[in-house]
Amino acid sequence: MPPNPPQPSPLAMADIAEQQLLDILHDPKAVAAIKSYIFEEDGTAKLQELLRGALDMKLPRADCDRLVDALQLAWNHFPHSRLDGQSPAQAFQRLGKIS
Length: 99
Hints:
Layout: H1 10-25, H2 28-40, H3 47-56, H4 61-77, H5 88-98
Helix pairs in contact: 1-4, 3-4
């Protein structure tokens, strides 16, 4: 069985998420607002709120599906202030190196 190909780094995945959001929304200010929302989340802000906002945009079904996927990727790979500026993916990666 061939080995698994290497996974992109969390920072590379953040870049991919940002580009996906730009490709779907065509609005750098909206992407910046999403990044800010994710960074400033304090434990009460939830991914579900972002997803609800995506559904409220009344995008075509295919774009809505892509946006949901991009938001999930962004949530996991964009930095969060309460994780000391790390993304959840970076925090989990660090835990794996500590254990």
